[in-house]
Fold each of these.
Amino acid sequence: MGSDSSPAIAIAGLTHRFGRNPPALTNVAMTVPTGAIYGFLGPNGAGKTTTLRLMLGLLRRQSGQIHVFGQALEENRGAVLSRIGSSIEVPSIYGSLTATENLEVWRLAFGCDHSRIPAVLELVGLSETGRKRADQFSLGMKQRLAIAVALLHVPRLLVLDEPTNGLDPHGIIEVRKLLRKLNHELAITILVSSHLLSEVEKLVTHLGVINRGRMAFEGTMAELAGRRLADTGETKDLEAIFLDLIGLDPVDA
């Protein structure tokens, strides 16, 4: 059994290829400290979702190691996945059902107590939605409902793929406040992927940057901000550093 003193996620040597295409991931290493809010950042197509799908057992691992709270994923699949809540790509909600009815479907799948439904609805701020169907929710409400689904079985780790994608500024703020609450009040470790530095820098404690299937940086936000130009020693702002890491000229951004 792993312990909570172990990193929430420890990945080493992760390489993955789809068919005969060039590798989608090459020797990826990642460490998500327990208790962190970790931003997984990179341009579209950089390998973020592939990494997350491998981490959640949705793709078969080809090469490398994945440990969650000290336990190897493949050898302890049931125990590992029971500690993870996730929302990947499309929120898993039914538009014709209310928030409560959606959660009842997933409660039965997870096998958790019925008391979890009002608890998570209160947690994500949807306890007053009543008989309103999910297809009448705003995008921000739908995203919060998807997070509620991920929280039903009381996970220690929450993995979210682009949770603010398509949201207006108010929706982004709502989700950001919710994630901070989950991390600070419930001690849930959070891994959130994004392609926007401006989105994650207000939220995360740690950051990993992936580009073209390879990790370009991993560390704290302070460590990222401390990076300097090799030739002049000039300190750059976070956006310029990020553009350097993904090989994009600021003029083209």
Amino acid sequence: MAQDGSLVLVCQSSGFSRPRAGVLRYSAKLSLLPTRAAQVEGLRQGLDAARAADTPVRLIIQTPGVAGASSRIHIREDLVGSVAEFDGDAYSVDFVRLAPAEPEPAAPSRRKR
């Protein structure tokens, strides 16, 4: 969980699809995660909480390395997600691009006459 209360999800690059325009969906199963039971349970609780409270999900993409190279990490601050489906094992999170921040209006110019 991030300081702002959002769920931070590290996603494998191979788990994405595009179900419709403007949506990047990540799908996976907790039962297939190669991690400790305590970590899986923490993610299960985080997904439950994010779905119940409609908490935003932040995205980190992990791309496996090739030919002995280490994996690459991409923090996607431009995307925010929401838990679309979660049955206790299989889950899907839909990510959309954040709207660009509105520029502040320019102060009126003052001309001397």
Amino acid sequence: MKHRNFRIAWSVAWGVVVVLLCVLWVRSFWWWDMFRLLPSANSWRMGVDSAYGSVALGLGKGETSWLTSNPIDQTSIDLLTSSMRENTFFGVGYLSAPTFFSVLIPHWAMILLSATIASIPWLRRSKRYSLRTLLIATTLIAVVLGIIVFVSRAG
């Protein structure tokens, strides 16, 4: 039980991140939130957008404000969904235009990653692997490869 307090603090901190990401996910269906780093009218800027269930991390030109939040209208929804359907796989993908490039990550993936990070300190580390562990790992790898082949042939 070494470092028990650290484990608890780590899990609580990442648990707060998970809750905040869930709130941002729900909000993203009504509001388009934009945060810009290094805003300037004439140079490239880095930014993070949250809209319609995804977070976009990207580079672009245009916006000069640090933080903007706009309601999502039907035109924005049509633009976002058509672009996201073309260039994404399970919500992960990219958007590209002459004035910007963004990598899309769905909120659910970020929540899953944060929850996994929160639970890592509580996992027991074993130095021995059993035959059962090897068979489970092999089965999971085969299932993932099968899904990849199925999706690539269906598309």
Amino acid sequence: MPLINDRDRAQIEKIFTDSLVDPVKMVYFTIPTSALIVPGRENCESCNDVQQLVEELAELSPKVSVEVHNFEREREVAQRYDVDRVPALVVASGDESRVRYFGAPAGYEFSTLLSDIQALSTHETALSQETRDALAAIPEPIHIQVFVTPT
């Protein structure tokens, strides 16, 4: 059963058609679920749902693709994207500008995910010129983390 209903699917497809310019790649890290419980093995309760969500999004535009990686078996790929837990989603443009999501991009985060896909594809953000100038004045790379909770 699809996670994105038909009405939302049509709306997202139109948004993607109207706004996406360059390709965007979603790199997803998961631990496949197993019916076998193994002590010491990580389990990921939401990994299957998040994978289904990103695959449904990728179906809505030829400019959006998805790569799925097994976090336990492909640690070197995870390290390249600075991923240390699952579920993890890296949304990247050709120039490797990227946004990382840890956990399920559901609720309010889903609309943010759609906006990030658009911003990475167009290489444009809604930042004011004043903010752009202030960021350009930072002399070295910085790491920004934003934490979001449902409350």
